[in-house]
Design a protein that fits this description.
Largest sheet: 15 strands, antiparallel
Protein name: PPM-type phosphatase domain-containing protein
Number of domains: 1
CATH topology: Phosphatase 2c, domain 1
InterPro entries: PP2C, PPM-type-like_dom_sf, PPM-type_phosphatase-like_dom
Number of helices: 10
Organism: Lupinus angustifolius
Structural class: alpha+beta
Order of helices and strands: HEEEEEHHHEEEEEHEEEEEHHHEHEH
GO molecular function, one term: protein serine/threonine phosphatase activity
Number of strands: 17
CATH superfamily: PPM-type phosphatase domain
Radius of gyration: 21 Å
């Protein structure tokens, strides 16, 4: 592989050549922003701390959606980022519906939780006259971790219920993943549903960049996920033509075959183990943490976590980091899987400080598939409510039953999210479909 320095120089020269070809010179014309709920909403483009880009694959309409809400809940130091990967016949409509409505529900839940916390403390005891000064505990968290978790669980639950009742979107056989991040000050709260992913780039003791995977790819072959599915009479197996892709299936039909264990929508499978309960994680940021990458599986299927942070860290300008990452992933698809259709790709790069760090970043190629356990052990916590194992990081052996590294962390290639659409109930009404939500 060669030394780290020569690798970095080669990567940087290659990036500079890509920029020189003019492919990235007109990004600002694609900006889409608007005001909503006291926040500035960004659907395309970049800002002082965010780079965003999405590209349609070769499978049809682009089913990926993404959004960034600056001044989330009306607070200047809070930002929301979300990436959503739709699947099924109208997955693009589902992901867009989630993109537009989930932030509102989460914002409302956070405000209610803040009001409850505010009533719990005596505002008059605060020197500034604001009860929020007293809410912060020893970890400098505005709300308790339990409150943050409750906000994510409540908003995701409401979002799925509203999808079931939405008469203009048929979500019986269509759905969407979601990977979301709320950053407030030096606090990072992550809510994940499905197999999109969030990865943090942090700097190690020797100034090398280290990827820290913040989420788990929630797939049906994970032991605890498979156990739940089987207990609900669902089935988990890989089809002969896709021996490495495990899916959740209905009890009596080899359809629709969903390659994830949690998702919004897909109400044909909600009675059989598919759930819309997110995994919730927490991390206290440090000055060594540089940026977070949220992306759909079109990125992670062909690039490792280390490759992703190397590409982003080598971009000469923050505004084009996401676009360069997508372009590199598309090239990897064509090179690694020339007989497969390139998947849709959507990326949000959230930079964690105000200083331009990208043009001078260094990266370490060795040990690229491992997460730095010692650095993240005490800073990265995940909610225990949706999982039984007592594990603080998503590094290595997450489930105690596994004797080998969890392949959910490997960025392994995956085919289409949904396979062989059902032959039954094709025209089932939304009113009928909603019973799958309420009965699960």
């Amino acid at each position: 592989m060669g030394g780290c320095c020569s690798h970095d120089d080669a990567v940087r020269r290659k990036m500079e050549m890509e920029v020189d070809d003019g492919d990235y010179e007109h990004d600002h014309s694609t900006h889409v922003t608007y005001e909503c709920d006291e926040a500035r909403v960004i659907l395309k483009g970049s800002s002082m701390c965010v780079s965003m880009f999405s590209q349609q694959g070769k499978k049809g309409v682009n089913q990926d959606s993404m959004t960034v809400w600056e001044d989330f809940t009306g607070e200047q130091d809070m930002i929301f980022c979300g990436v959503f990967d739709g699947h099924g016949p109208i997955g693009h409509k589902v992901s867009q519906y989630i993109r537009d409505n989930l932030p509102l529900k989460l914002s409302s839940a956070i405000r209610i939780a803040q009001q409850k916390a505010c009533r719990f403390y005596d505002a008059n005891e605060s020197e500034s006259g604001s009860c929020y000064d007293d809410i912060y505990d020893d970890n400098n968290i505005g709300m308790s971790l339990a409150s943050w978790e409750g906000c994510f669980l409540k908003s995701f639950d409401e979002m799925d219920e509203h999808l079931a009742q939405e008469i203009n979107i048929d979500t019986y056989c269509s759905g969407s993943t979601a990977v979301t991040v709320v950053k407030q000050g030096d606090q990072l709260i992550i809510g994940n549903l499905g197999d999109s992913r969030a990865v943090l780039c942090t700097r190690g003791d020797r100034d090398q960049l280290i990827p820290v995977q913040l989420t788990v790819d929630l797939k049906p072959d994970i032991p605890i996920e498979a156990s739940r599915i089987i207990s609900c009479d669902g089935r988990v197996f890989a089809a002969e033509e896709e021996p490495d892709v495990y899916r959740i299936w209905m009890p009596d039909d080899d359809c629709p075959g969903l390659a994830m264990s949690r998702a919004f929508g897909d109400f044909c499978l909600k009675d059989y183990g598919l759930i819309s309960v997110p995994d919730v994680f927490y991390r206290k940021l440090t000055k060594q943490d540089e940026f977070v990458v949220l992306a759909t599986d079109g990125i992670w299927d062909v690039l490792t976590n280390s490759e992703v942070i190397n590409i982003v860290s080598s971009a000469p300008r923050r505004s084009i980091a996401a676009k360069m990452l997508v372009k590199r992933a598309v090239r990897a698809w064509r090179y690694k899987y020339p007989g497969s259709k390139v998947d849709d790709c959507a990326v949000i790069c959230l930079f964690l400080d105000d200083q331009p760090v990208l043009s001078h970043s260094k990266s370490n190629k060795s040990g690229s598939h491992r997460i730095h356990r010692n650095q993240s052990k005490h800073q990265f916590r995940r909610s225990k409510s949706t999982r039984n194992e007592d594990t603080e990081t998503v590094d290595g052996k997450v489930d105690l039953e596994l004797n080998e590294e969890w392949k959910a962390l490997g960025g392994l290639v995956r085919s289409n999210s949904i396979s062989r659409l059902p032959r039954l109930a094709k025209n089932m009404s939304k009113r009928q479909a909603s019973k799958y939500y309420k009965g699960s």
